[in-house]
Amino acid sequence: MADSALYWSDTLQNLFADPALSFDPWAMQWQPFEQPAPTDLQAVAAPQALLNLGARLRQVPVAVIGPREASDEEYATAEAMGAALAGHHLQLLCGGKNGVMEASAKGHLEAGGRPIGLVPEGDWRCANPYVRIPIATGIGKSRNVIIAQSSTVLIAVGGGYGTMSEMAFGLHFDKLVLALGDAPALPGVVACTSVDEALNRTAEHLLQLPEPVDDEADAGAGLS
């Protein structure tokens, strides 16, 4: 997606990949645009496109994961990441406890978001005070699987074995997994040097064009 141009039309208040493709912010996918081509298309970066789409975006979760015992740097990074997601109309999902989870929820809530926390306990009151929507799973650490499956993107800020398991599940479910700070380095994980880079990669992933279909390969597969 980094090589794919995005265009915004002020007249139609919508995002385009070209005059023939417009973005449906509720379905979160590109659709054929069969009306007359807009004449005011202006190139726009992916994060700005999210800002332009605003509240019309479907609130599909983006997870911020990390250790319960966060360093000062990890806490600050996770808080900034949560705020950046809220500021671009993206829904935060976290594990609902302390450390990185608390920091991301704090940043998200204070930036106007409604952070969701999936706590491992059976009582929603176990969530940190910044979780707006606490969900008591009652399944312990197995809730890591739900976080990985439910999120479109997982952003790890530091972490140990618990975070590593969430990252591995995310990769297993073919999700985009990003790493900030000292997050575990796993094959397939994209390391980011800043919150801005993580936000940009997240935005590009959410707005990516579908992979082109190889008709000849599909036809061949149907004959086998």
Task: Describe the protein's architecture and organization.
- The chain has 224 residues and is of the alpha/beta class.
- It has a domain at 61-206: Rossmann fold, CATH 3.40.50.
- It contains seven helices and twelve strands.
- The strands form two sheets. Strands 9-8-7-6-10-11-12 form a seven-stranded parallel sheet, with helices on both faces. Strands 4-3-2-1-5 form a five-stranded antiparallel sheet.
- Strand 6 (61-65), helix 2 and strand 7 (91-94) form a beta-alpha-beta unit.
- The chain is elongated and about 55 Å long.
- The protein starts with 6 loop residues before the first strand and ends with a helix.
- The mean pLDDT is 92.
Key features?
Rossmann fold, 7 helices, 21% strand, single chain, 224 residues, 5-stranded antiparallel β-sheet, 7-stranded parallel β-sheet, elongated, alpha/beta
| CATH topology type of the domain at 61-206 | Rossmann fold
The global form is elongated
The biggest beta sheet is recorded as: 7 strands, parallel
Cα-based radius of gyration, to the nearest Å = 19 Å
Give the name of the CATH architecture of the domain at 61-206.
3-Layer(aba) Sandwich
Which CATH class of the domain at 61-206 applies here?
A: Alpha Beta
The string of secondary-structure elements, in order, is EEEEEHEHEHEEHEHEEHH
Q: Compute the number of helices.
A: 7
- Largest sheet strand order: 9-8-7-6-10-11-12
